[in-house]
Each structure stands twice: as C-alpha cells, then as structure tokens.
What we know:
alpha+beta
Amino acid sequence: MPIVPVAFDYRLKEVGLGEPMMLSGDREVDVERFRQFYQDVTPKCPEKFGPVKFRDAEPSADPQ
C-alpha cells in the first residue's frame, strides 16, 4: 500500500502532498526519502521537531 507524505509548512502557509511511495523494505532508503521530502518544511513548533525516523528505531520503554 503506498504512503503519501503530507506536510504543513507554517512559514509558507502551505500544505504539501508528496508522491505516493511504496516502501522498499530497506529502512535506510525509505527513511531517507521521507527526510528529503520534509527537509525544507517549517513546522509550527520548530523546537519540538526532531529527526525523521521510524518510531521503532528507538528502544522501547515497554519490554513486551
């Protein structure tokens, strides 16, 4: 199923839709495509914006 990235750019006051993307199975390739899409987007709260990564890339606090 394709993923369509969406961005709300608060500096430009625009909503951006990316091209539908099929995940390749290579996590680094896939996350880099998302990083490229969001690289020039200005978030509403830049101080809360972190690096683009897959959620499960961080160790889970829940051991289950």
